[in-house]
From TrEMBL:
Protein name, UniProt field: Prolyl 4-hydroxylase alpha subunit Fe(2+) 2OG dioxygenase domain-containing protein
Pfam families: 2OG-FeII_Oxy_3
Domain of life: Bacteria
Xref: InterPro entries: Pro_4_hyd_alph_FE2OG_OXY (IPR044862)
Domain Prolyl 4-hydroxylase alpha subunit Fe(2+) 2OG dioxygenase: 132-223
Length: 234
């Protein structure tokens, strides 16, 4: 019997505690800083109807930013141990061998890399993106447009550096509101504290279905490649 093909969509439960998730939701509502959500073409509520706060780099959100990036990083290491070529296929990574000479890293090397060593490779190639906190209002909000996360937009091509997407669900207790993947025919049901990681390209075209009976809160971002100047500086 052949193995089930991988769909590269992973969900990690209990990534954040319910208390931390609840605190993020409360801080979102108390801030008064939410603005209409944007897509690549601007504010288009027929495509995405949400209220968003971009928290990265803002002093009042520093603790939240660190907590989210720390939680995502731990799961990213798990993701890359499962899908090793997500790290080593795009860039030919090398490491010093016992004799000091550089050698190419292979998928088999992951069996002997501890998290510290793997983390060094990850940080050499990848970086965290800006984090958005989002609320989708019950019976109204959602992201019904089928979309992917990889596209040419900004002059510095930052959106083309996106490698994987992530979404951390901050609450549940509502109907629908799934993250639905088109080609994989999967619907990820939001669960408080669960983290979704999936590729950013068109192969993982997806949408956010409208929540019913309660508002949906998420934190979401991407893991991006380092810029070429950083990766190839030596």
């Amino acid at each position: 019997m052949s193995a089930t093909p991988a769909d590269f969509i992973e969900v990690y439960e209990n990534t954040l505690s319910p208390d931390v998730c609840r605190a993020l939701v409360q801080a979102f509502e108390a801030s008064g800083a939410a603005v209409p959500g944007r897509v690549g073409g601007g504010v288009l509520p027929e495509l995405k109807d949400s209220r968003d706060i971009q928290i990265t780099g803002k002093p009042e959100w520093r603790e939240a930013e660190v907590a989210l990036n720390t939680a995502v990083y731990a799961c990213l290491l798990r993701y890359l141990r499962t899908y090793r070529y997500a790290l080593i296929a795009p860039v030919m990574l090398q490491t010093p061998g016992a004799d000091g000479a550089l050698r190419r890293i292979t998928a088999g090397d992951f069996d002997t890399l501890d998290d510290r060593a793997l983390g060094e490779l990850v940080r050499a190639v990848l970086r965290p993106g800006a984090i958005n906190l989002q609320r989708y209002t019950a019976g109204q909000g959602g992201y019904p447009y089928w979309h992917c996360e990889l596209y040419p937009r900004s002059p510095d091509a930052e959106t083309l550096h996106r490698h994987v997407l992530w979404t951390l669900y901050l609450n549940d207790g509502f109907a629908a509101g799934e993250t639905e993947f088109l080609y994989q025919q999967r619907r990820i049901v939001p669960k408080t504290g669960s983290l979704l990681i999936a590729p950013a390209a068109f192969t993982h075209t997806h949408r956010g279905n409208r929540p019913e009976g309660g508002d949906k809160y998420i934190a979401t971002s991407w893991i991006l490649f380092q810029r070429a100047e950083q990766i190839f500086q030596s």
